[in-house]
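Form 12-C: Joint structure prediction
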Amino acid sequence: QKEVEQDPGPLSVPEGAIVSLNCTYSNSAFQYFMWYRQYSRKGPELLMYTYSSGNKEDGRFTAQVDKSSKYISLFIRDSQPSDSATYLCAMSNTGNQFYFGTGTSLTVIP
Amino acid sequence: EPEVTQTPSHQVTQMGQEVILRCVPISNHLYFYWYRQILGQKVEFLVSFYNNEISEKSEIFDDQFSVERPDGSNFTLKIRSTKLEDSAMYFCASSTGTSAHEQYFGPGTRLTVT
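Section 2 - Result
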């Protein structure tokens, strides 16, 4: 059983576009939801976290969690070439063991 | 800005050898983690460590693996007898006591088993 599903892409958008990244999951006990950005050959960098359902905004980034649909999203507004990276979702029920998606590769074209 | 550091950046070892991967977590963090990422695959949780003991571990973390915090700054992952399938990037992460889920990752150690 795949705990977390994420479309690997690749996703290519023009600079300034709104990007929507999504993950679905099967374990209804998950309550911690994270988004990481990973550049090539680097460690994941924490972008956003959300506890339980709802929205969270931080600058150009908005994270949404819909627990009833087991679906989470990350929106990037006014995308920049520097946003080009792989975006990983991760989730947990305990806050310790996180289950990661495969990552979505994003390229923002100037 | 404080960050998690890991050494070495790349380790090559022969099958059956023991390796120790080292991490220096962020200084005021209390929770420590190891993850691995096989090339082209998902990041996978190995183990979490708090208050000098393992708090959670995955099925991957079998008897070949062990973790230790030998002093106040280092956190190590030991693989006793490496196998070819242990080849991967190994990431250390740490988090504070108040936000255990906000895990900050190091740059990783690339382990190649030949």
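Section 3 - Comments
Residues 33 and 91 of chain A are 4 Å apart (CA to CA). Chain A touches chain B at residues 32, 34, 36, 41-46, 49, 51, 88, 90, 92, 94-103 (CB under 8 Å).
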